[in-house]
Specification:
Order of helices and strands: HHHEEHEHEHEEEHHEHH
CATH topology: Glycerol-3-phosphate (1)-acyltransferase
Number of domains: 1
Oligomer: single chain
Structural class: alpha/beta
Shape: globular
CATH class: Alpha Beta
Radius of gyration: 22 Å
Amino acid sequence: MDSLQPRRLKRKGPLSFGRHQAPTDAELFADRPRGGLAGGRLRAVRRLALVALWSLVAMPIQAVLLLLPGRAKARFARLYHAGLCRLIGLRVQVVGQVCQDRPVLYVANHSSWLDILALGSVVHACFVAKAEVDSYPFVNIIARLGRTVFVSRTRGTTGREADAMKGVMQAGDSLILFPEGTSNDGTRVLPFRSAFLGVAKEARQVQPISVVYDRLGGLPALRRDRAVFAWFGDMDLGSHSWQLLRREGTRVTVLLHQPFPPEAMPDRKAMARECGHVVGAGAAELRQNRPSSPRPVAGATRLSSHRA
């Protein structure tokens, strides 16, 4: 009968559940090909040198193109971002079609500075960035050459910044906007803020986009790997970039959802809610390494069919 009794756990102390801590560098590298620490450092140095060289070549070209009419400046900006992605070893996978009915307001989730490179390599558009970016040395020059619109969201400048965004779209150029208002850890999509979509009425089409970093070391990215790509809070840009540039086999998937005319939505709150839902659903599938396809924005579909 004693053999039927459950064995008692031989534990000297109670279970302890400590506070969650960010994964260490060793944990992030675990089971990921990296070619040794020395190889990772050499890889990062080589990539930094190539990025600097490519930027120094591209900057005067873009400066001249800004003075000329036509869309050559937009095309070259896309070429520049595509070159950066290639130089840092980031493969960009595109699912869906880019809306060409300019001007387009592209709205996407935001988790890293890498979003600029990934989206900039896919669409011809200007970015809307927070005013702090304009204080980053060297980065601010590149952003200005790319015709980035800087916003501070302070009462005294809101009207002027809104006019700047409208001016870009009225000139026939598209905008890329991050309606979450900030970057996050890459494990979720924050609610879209309707205030950011006030400029949508100037666009012919609005296209939601899901951006997810889904490969690291050539293998599917796990939840712990989000820290390699995500840049948020008070993270230092230099150290984050250095750690990322040491990695191999990185990939981002850009999922382009179905566009819709802004007048197909009753108001910007509904637009923010429906776009956020579509972007979040697409990103969730990609984070789970499941195949995903472009989704329609439900509210716009119903309204468009009703008006038809």
